[in-house]
Amino acid sequence: MVKVAVAGANSGLALEVIDKLVEDHKHEVVALCRKDPTQFPQQRGVHWVQTTFKDKAQLVKLFGDVEVVLNFIVVHNDPGNESARLLVDAAVEAGVKRFAPSEWTMSQQLYSIIDSVPWYQGKLDMQSYLREMNKDKKVIEYCFFQPGMFMDYAGYPHKLAKHVPPMPTVWQLDELRIVGVKGHEDDMVTMTTVSDIAAVVKHAIEYEGEWPEVGGIRGQQISPRQLQQMVEKIRGKPVQLELVEQSDLDNGVLNAKLPLVQHPSIPEDQREAWSKPGWIGILTAVAKGAFAVTDEWNKLLPDYKFTSMETFITQTWK
């Protein structure tokens, strides 16, 4: 049995991970959130705690017999990484063995495109913080869990995960339309289902070896053109591959019609302001390879079978 503390436990992905961790009653979870915890699923093996993430002494006490801390707090909702840094510091003081910062998406290529997705700066800052902490000796074991895009989002508007809500992407398969960047039609993107991410995290919790610093989780690599051809074959209908110019994106011009960003961390009255820069950032990230993650956890878990894109498309759309 491993006792795991989950910060930002009310987020969709965190709830999926919690469900997986306690499904066979092997592990215990301390679920930390700012909101009233009574509104979230109450289940065996999960102890909910309401906290501000500002009281280090409280966190140290909560982490007293915890072996792993997983952070799911959205970085743009944590200015200056105040909560994230406090979680690390409290974990170290409490003697926690392992820590996972709030990654859960792009690869290390994020460094090269951060100007296009500045809301992710906190991820890079926390990577530097952890590396600096372990510079002279290992103070705490950590891993940057990076699964690329959620494959479930390619099923929009269908709700395919229990807790992660559907969200539109630049791959609008409901409209048989894929938006990409000209010249990057064959560049790879990693797509991983939410259920596979949760399962890998559970395996990682139980993994007896040392965690890799960069922990890529590669469900499947696929390019916009390959996805176009796959969907056309499975659905028997033509799919439009609509291409925009990278030079336009670099100049803040989005020559493609895309819906409002609907991420649950963005209030409804802010979604219009977020949408244009958000889509430009996502398209740039796809074109520059930031969603093509490495496969460290695939290699460490060779017997785990990931959901293929073909299986996902067939089950969701045929």
Automatic annotation (TrEMBL):
Spell out the InterPro entries in the cross-references.
Answer: NAD(P)-bd_dom_sf, NmrA-like, NmrA/Isoflavone_reductase-like
Q: Which domain of life is it from?
A: Eukaryota
Q: Which family does it belong to?
A: Belongs to the NmrA-type oxidoreductase family. Isoflavone reductase subfamily.
Segments forming domain NmrA-like: 3-253
Q: Which SUPFAM superfamilies does UniProt cross-reference here? A: NAD(P)-binding Rossmann-fold domains (SSF51735)
Keywords per UniProt: NADP, Oxidoreductase
Q: Does the keyword Methyltransferase apply?
A: no
Keyword set includes rRNA-binding: no
Put simply, this protein is called NmrA-like domain-containing protein
* Pfam families tied to this protein: NmrA (PF05368)
Gene Ontology molecular functions: oxidoreductase activity
- Protein species of origin: Conoideocrella luteorostrata
